[in-house]
Design a protein that fits this description.
The complex is a heterodimer of chains A (about 350) and B (about 425).
Chain A (H helix, E strand, L loop, with lengths): L17 H7 L25 E5 L15 H12 L4 E5 L12 E3 L5 H5 L3 H5 L15 E2 L3 H6 L17 H24 L4 H9 L6 H23 L6 H19 L11 H9 L14 H14 L9 H7 L2 H14 L6
Helix pairs in contact in A: 2-11, 6-8, 6-9, 6-11, 7-8, 9-12, 11-13
Chain B lengths: L1 E3 L12 H13 L6 E4 L13 E4 L2 E4 L1 H10 L13 H28 L1 H15 L8 H12 L15 H4 L6 H10 L5 H13 L2 H26 L15 H14 L7 H9 L1 H15 L6 E3 L4 H13 L6 H18 L8 H28 L5 H15 L3 H12 L1
Parallel strand pairs in B: 1-2, 2-5
Antiparallel strand pairs in B: 1-3, 3-4
The chains are: A mainly alpha (about 350), B mainly alpha (about 425).
Chain lengths: ~350, ~425
Amino acid sequence: MPESPRRTGSSSIFTIPSPLRQLFSHFPLVTYAASELPVRCPDEESRTKNTLHVFSSPTDAPRGLPSYNPTCLKWQVFLRLAGIEFETVASNNHASPTGVLPFLLPRAPTAAIEAAREPEEKGTELGRIPLHHRAVLPVASGKLEEFGLSYDGGAGGKRVGDVEGVMRAEVYQSLLDTRIRCAWLHSLYLAPENTELLGRLYVNPISRSYVARASTLHSLRRAAEAEILRATGTAVIDAGAIYAAADEAFEALSTVLGEDDWFFGSEKGTDTKAGGEGATEKEVDPRSKPSLFDAAVFSYTHLLLDGDMAWQDRRLAELAAQSPALVRHRDRILDICWSEPVK
Amino acid sequence: MELHVWGQGFDLPSIDPECLAAITFFSIYVKPEKWRLVQSSDPSVSPNRTLPALSHNSRWISGYDDIIRHATTSNDVLVKSVPCLAPIQKAHLIAYTAFIRKHGAPLISLSLYVSSANWVGSTRPLYSKILRFPLPWTVPLFLRSRAHSTAAHLSLSSLDTDYVSPKEKDGSNRQQPAAAADVFNRNPTLESLRTRMHAVTGSLTPDVRSHIRLDGLASDFYAPLEALLRETNMGKTFIQTGGQPTALDCLCYGYLALMLFPELPRRFLADSMNRKHKELVRFTVMMRNLSRKNGDLRVSNSEDGMGGTLARFMDSVADKMPGGLGDAWQRWKRLAAEGKLAGNSVVGWEAYDVLHLAAQILGATLVGLTAAAYKGMLGLGPGPGGHKAWERQILGLGGKGEAGKMFDMAFEAL
């Protein structure tokens, strides 16, 4: 039997052809020295503060202005309501260890905390490393609620209520997660009139190249389409139905808020229990505390009602503006979090 | 009125929760002589390609919410009036509707479609009965892949033993997302505790672990519903209306019935409900009796001819065309349907779509050519004889015109 040419060692599929081998043997052509860290990198001073990384413009972020991304804004507002001091940093998804914004870099422990550490902890191998030399682990958005609730607001006790276990809040949260989110995605990403706004917020900061921008815009739109189709469970994106559903959702939220200051204030039963265990003497009306749910509602209503957003297709913005209760709710939070007039 | 739905199964008139909900509402509230059920199992009957769909005076309405709205506002079709709701009750109805869809649909996807045991043992054989030959070859696979994407965020795809996630295809580890999240949880002082916990979770088989998670997920869905049931009307209906079911009760029944009644090889949803949420079991059984009170449904099968079935089969094959063509075809169909809904006759293609498709075809051609060139450099022909034949082809091309010359030049350069 004649031997097939494949058997011979020189012509296996894994052998690199000699022209290619010669070409690659020239590399690396030049080796550059390592470049310095970018100026924006956190220095020693900024490590003494909590920093929240959000979608924002480089001019808005240092002033702590509201983020233009609903999820980021929700956490930004929640942390502000909780009374936590932090700086906002304009960032993007690639910067986040989990791939999603926001995330919070807690401040490095100060010398006082270092001194107060338990001696036996210092005995361990890990304990010998000073705390401020250890890498500070970022807090992902999933853990931010815990982070915010664990913060003691000082004189007035905790400033935010806990909606964990309030079933009605969980149920109404699905209104925000499905109906309002779908309408938001449609309005910002798919409505052709809002292309300019979408470009200003998410596309233009990425690159100056026309091709890169067109490609980013295209993939953002495709992702939004897929997300809407998945959330509505339909085969077709029916804009009329999406806005009608969002209208119903805003109406339901407005009804359930009614004349109250905060959502589900009367249902935070857990709050009084916690007060009984602790040393808090005075009975605080639980309705006087906002919660994560309020921040979530605000994150949509504020961005829809905010004049700076420059919506061209105003369908969703008008739906949000229809409810006086939601407009009042938005103004109330804006007053607390950004008491000095924005801009 | 004709109500088009997915076909029957599990001793229920439809195996889709939304369709089942619509059927329940109609059998309780709509006069039997005014409507009939068509088990067409074909979403393309309606303009926005969704079931359930209602055809009334040659007008199409699809989606549960719109169908109920249409039925309750039409003249002279209702047996009795649907209860009027106070504003806060209406708000609850809307919120709980959204809640049921958001949390119920992924659970049903997991139980009926994603779980290999249930899919092979129950759901797939059912579709073979519901759909006409040769549709059972393609449509159930499409439904299953959609169910996968519905339930993807629960990261329980391990229930499907044949499923390979895109990440694993690349050869990376299944545990990767969990490991990335773990970076955040790591706290040096808790390290030892964590190792001990890992030892506990590590000793559990993947089956047991996913069972624990499933039980938790099911309870997260059942508990708020049961709480609402207890709150109003002593567990009879979800909203205080004097025992009259509302659109919410029917929708909830649609989902709960498909969790409770099917006889599946893996009955995790039913077990969890039976064990911990007796009120919901009572409610579901009560609703089933109520919907059967008005006698049998008037069912007619779809009168699609063989031609229609074949066209649908070819269409579903086209959806799976490789190299991005299938996706482009699906997208074209969707855009055409959306255009019709909005009243435009022109399909809303973006220039980018066309460019994208052209680039894909060009890219595939280039990859092919490069592979051929690489193979040529190695001298890896199909064999000594075949190699000659291949050279002849190139020479032949050279004699035929511009394109051939270009090929020749390209190979000489190499």
